Amino acid sequence: MDAELPDVAAGRRFYGELFGWSFEEAYGSSVWALLNGDRVASLAPKSDGRMPTVWTVSFAADDAAALGRRITAAGGQMVMAPFPVGDLGTAALAADPEGAVFGLWQAGRHPGFGRRHEPGTFVWAELYTRDTATANAFYGGLFHEALFGDGSEPDFGRAAVTDVFPAEMPSHFLAHFRVTDLDDALGAVQRLGGRVQAPPLETSYGRVAVVTDNQGASFALLQR
């Protein structure tokens, strides 16, 4: 999980207060977000001001180049070809057939984040798409365990973008972070300069609200 932000220092203040994260230097100008000493996310400066301010959901890859070839063969595209991130690992950026963007991470010295499903950490990624059949086939072929389970707690779901949503809304992933008290967390988001995009609603996986941070990156808060 990583956020690309115009101002990493402002991101540190926002997320440090909201989730209780501390921070340490990572690669280049990026920082690791830590919870009780374990890495749970990263914040990075946007390399191009024209790019959106976003949270990116990444999938682990044993071989990012080989998985990239499978993605293009299945109708997706590589937005950014695999590239080394020092000795930490290899990263890539891809899009599915409907245009939803996601990352790939081939671990080197950084195996991935040490905590999830706990308050203040990543708990769920929801894919919003207009063509659910295509999404099922695409992700089911690439990431079978992420969709259908390997015996561990699931991380990933898929929802249809219906007429309730604006027509211009593209397919996208929405990262969810777990909180203990959703109402308290929403109050903190607004106090810290963020805003509530969608008020709390009940879902099959918990009580959820969609928010943006103080720089416009969207994410969801989930109380289970």
TrEMBL record:
SUPFAM superfamilies: Glyoxalase/Bleomycin resistance protein/Dihydroxybiphenyl dioxygenase (SSF54593). Residues 1-107 form the VOC domain. InterPro entries: Anthracycline_SecMetBiosynth (IPR052164), Glyas_Bleomycin-R_OHBP_Dase (IPR029068), Glyas_Fos-R_dOase_dom (IPR004360), VOC_core (IPR037523). Pfam families: Glyoxalase (PF00903). This is VOC family protein. It comes from Streptomyces pyxinicus.
